[in-house]
Amino acid sequence: MITFIPLTGFLGAGKTTTMTTTALALEEKGHRVAVITNDQGVELVDTHLVRSKLDSVAEVTGGCFCCKFEDLVEAVVALTESDGVDTVIAEAVGSCTDLQATVVRPLRRYYGENMVVAPLTTVVDPLRHRAFERAAQRGEPESDLSYLFRQQLTEADVIAVNKLDTIPAGQAGELLLGLRKQYGDAAVVGYSATTGEGVDTLLTAWEAPAGNQAVDLDVDYDRYAAAEAQLAWMNQEVELSAVEGEFDATEWARTVLARLSGWAAEQGAVVGHAKLTVEVGDGEFAKLSLTEAGAEPTVDRTPASAAGGARAVINARVACEPDDLDRAVTDAVAAADQTTGARSSATSPVSFKPGYPRPVHRLAPAGA
């Protein structure tokens, strides 16, 4: 019997770090764990990072699990048959919702004889949650992105508040209490996927019965599609070489994301996330991320030495027009080249906006 653990949550919430940290924790308990990443595009920074830490990794690209349901099932079957895993953790695209009806229930109905589907977990970034809450408190009309965020919380069996190490303990307690009051059918846990503190509480929550199985989420698919369409999505490869000698891959990546952060702040554009890896060879790479316009990039990993040549992958999801994101990234790469003494040769940037979500299945709760 395979255990399938579905994760959802807004862009930048830390789903990939959560997935990796919990997978390693489950392996320490004797489980054989595989993970599945998911995205609207291809060439995923997340997949590269996870493969550096785990052996069994697959990806579903070109759409969310709901629209690529059979691809998801095929990935689960392939992992279990080839790698002998007993647990699969899968993170859905950060702009996806309605997973109870389109993924969780279909898996239970059609594959329940061989698969136990764990409670649906929505991963939350406390700073992102606070930003949406403050907009509501100011009396602003609910944006489509805020609507999407709220739907992800409403359908959760487990609300997993990540990054508690980034806010004061008092604020963390208030946030957890407020979520428990607002979403009483969900288990609310707090933890830090980066430090590992509190992760055991999340693992315990996955062992409990799903508390929100009867929820029949009333999703306005036009608003859902509009929220996704606010974001331009870019996955781009860049080949790098040093003009002379070697260049600092981490500084190159930092400059790209810092320039993109500044541009987004000037434009008033929401950054869903921007992630960047620079692979310098022999399994060594830099990995940096950005989840807020105007913020400093976070350094998640650095290579041991400078590089003469490298391959970079940029994943960016920003609330703007695709052409604007293309230009912003092109300018940021040029600035990074000048700063670090690198020479870049990029594939033509082709940012896009996701199409209308069309799930393969959409099942009502049992008895509805």
Automatic annotation (TrEMBL):
Pfam families according to UniProt: cobW (PF02492)
Biased composition (Polar residues): 338-350
Renumbered residue ranges of the record's region Disordered: 336-368
CobW/HypB/UreG nucleotide-binding domain mapped to chain residues: 6-172
Residues of the signal peptide: none
PANTHER family, A to Z: COBW DOMAIN-CONTAINING PROTEIN, COBW-RELATED
Protein name according to UniProt: CobW/HypB/UreG nucleotide-binding domain-containing protein
Source organism of this protein record: Streptomyces daqingensis
